Amino acid sequence: MQVQLQSGDTPLAELVKLLQSGEEVIIADGDTPVAKLVPYQKKGAFKLGILAGLDVGAIPDFLEPMSEEELRLWEGK
Predict the structure, then answer these.
(1) Contact between 30 and 54 (Cβ < 8 Å)
(2) Residue 61 forms part of a structural domain
(3) Could you tell me whether strands 25-29 and 2-4 are parallel, antiparallel, or unpaired per DSSP bridges?
(4) Structural domain includes residue 46
């Protein structure tokens, strides 16, 4: 749905109902879109494509430094 900025006729509650039903709302100034309202999506559990549904255990934090043992294994030593 697209609403005009000047109209102001669309109450916020109506826009929220559209968002709750999954619809995106574009706010336009004349013919120029200036903003897009999108439904909020809760972040679910992390799934790994073909492994979705399987218990893959803890996923490593790739920003953390490796232990000395992990570094030796990575370097093939």
Answers:
(1) no
(2) no
(3) parallel
(4) no
Residue 58 has pLDDT above 80, yes or no: no
Q: What is the pTM of this model?
A: 0.46
Q: How many domains, the chain?
A: 1
Say if residue 37's pLDDT is above 70: yes
Give a yes or no: residue 54 inside a domain. no
Q: What residues make up the domain containing 31?
A: 2-37
Q: Which H/E stretch holds residue 28? A: strand 25-29
- Decide if 49 contacts 56 (C-beta within 8 A): no
* pLDDT top residue among 63 and 32: 32
Could you give the dihedral angle defined by the CA atoms of residues 2, 5, 8 and 9, in that order, rounded to the nearest 10 degrees? -30
How many residues appear in the chain? 77
